[in-house]
Each structure stands twice: as structure tokens, then as C-alpha cells.
Amino acid sequence: MDNHPELNDYLDFPHVKQAFMMKRESTTKKTGTCCCEIAFGITSREPAQASPQRLLSINRGHWTIENSCHYILDWNWDEDRCRIRTGYGPENMSRLRRFAIGVIKSRGVTNVAQKIRQLCLNIRLVFDYLRMTANSCSAVRCR
After folding, report:
1. Which has fewest Cβ within 10 Å: 42, 82, 90, 111?
2. Are 70 and 78 in contact (CB under 8 A)?
3. Tens digits of per-residue pLDDT, 31-40?
């Protein structure tokens, strides 16, 4: 049952249940400059399912994904400037990069960028890290 038919009449978004506003305040560490940003959103979740605290948590969860994966892709592999543009190449490379990030994170590494740099310096470390050879190092040493 739709509790807010007026939103559905006003917005071209099926099944909308809530509209919300988030105010974000931040301070640039270098300059001390304060910034205020207002973001608006809509959701198909009922107020009982998504209180203001829950909506904030969902929004922060989105930025956790953005910061933990997309940031790594952009800064460590410079994915946005990748020149692979035809066929399934871009999609396959993106999947390989994401797979590599997942493998590194699954080992409990907190600084993915540092581990990528370390592995890039010595190909033998990659094989040891993945335990791909009979004489690969133990899990304790490979972390």
C-alpha cells in the first residue's frame, strides 16, 4: 500500500515511498575551508523500513564501496585513462582488476595500494601470494 500517493503523482519514479534531504558539511584539512553540500534522494522503502538513521547508514555504505573499490581502481590502475576500448576488453580488464582487489582484501590486507606496489615489483611474490607453485611461501609470510 502506498502511503504517499502525492509523491508518485509528482515524481516520475515508480513506487516512491520517501523523499529525503542530506546535508553534508566538510572541512578541507589544508586550508581549513568549510563546505556545505545538500543532496536530495528518493527511496522505495517505507518509513518503517528506512528511518533517517537507516537512510544515512545506507548512504554511507554506498560511499564505503566507492572509496574502497572505485578509488583503488582510479588511483592505482588509472582505470579511467585505460586505452582498451573495443569488444569485451574494457569489461574484462575491469573484472580482472576487481578480482585482484578482492583477492588482496580477502587476505586481510588493509593497504591495498601498498600491496599492489609490492607485488608489481617482484612477479615471484605474485605466485607466492596466490600459492600457485609447489614451493610457495606459507600464508603467514605472504601477507
Report:
1. 111
2. no
3. 999 999 998 8
Question: Identity (one letter) of the amino acid at 143?
Answer: R
- Tell me whether residue 25 is exposed, middle or buried, using C-beta atoms within 10 angstroms of its C-beta: 0 to 12, 13 to 18, 19 or more: exposed
For residues 70 and 64, give the distance between their C-alpha atoms in angstroms, rounded to a whole number: 10
Interatomic CA distance for residues 114 and 121, integer angstroms: 11
| Helix or strand (DSSP H, E) at 10 | helix 5-10
> What single-letter DSSP state applies at residue 44?
S
- Per residue in 34-58, pLDDT tens? 999 998 888 888 888 999 999 888 8
Three-class secondary structure of residue 79 per DSSP: helix
Burial grade of 10 (CB within 10 A; 0-12, 13-18, 19 or more): exposed
pTM of the model: 0.51
